[in-house]
Design brief:
The protein has one domain. 32% of the residues lie in helices and 25% in strands. The mean pLDDT is 93. The protein contains two helices and three strands, in the order βααββ. The radius of gyration is 13 Å and the shape is globular. A hairpin with a 6-residue loop joins strand 2 and strand 3. A three-stranded antiparallel β-sheet has the order 1-3-2, covered by helices on one side. The relative contact order is 0.32. It has 77 residues and is an alpha+beta fold.
């Protein structure tokens, strides 16, 4: 059984986005944005199944950080 992904976009600014990308390329994590992505999953009523994975940034204004987060399937009895 595959675990579904939820794509999260977080508003940011160019300076922060650049820093997140640099950290990602260095194999490190920008904790604040990762935690914000996790919190957004919870806010949308889903349960994260793994740590958020940084995917990239958008080119628009405002710039957005993109994370994919594995979430548990909704189980109803």
């Amino acid at each position: 059984m595959t675990v579904p992904l939820m794509r999260i976009q977080l508003d940011s600014d160019r300076l922060t986005a650049r820093r997140v990308v640099e950290l990602h390329r260095a194999g490190k994590t920008h904790r604040e944005s990762r935690d914000a992505a996790r919190a957004e999953v919870w806010r949308r009523g889903r349960t994260p199944a793994a740590e958020p994975v940084f995917v990239g940034v958008t080119n628009g204004e405002p710039v957005r950080l993109i994370y994919d987060v594995e979430v548990y399937r909704d189980v109803t009895s």
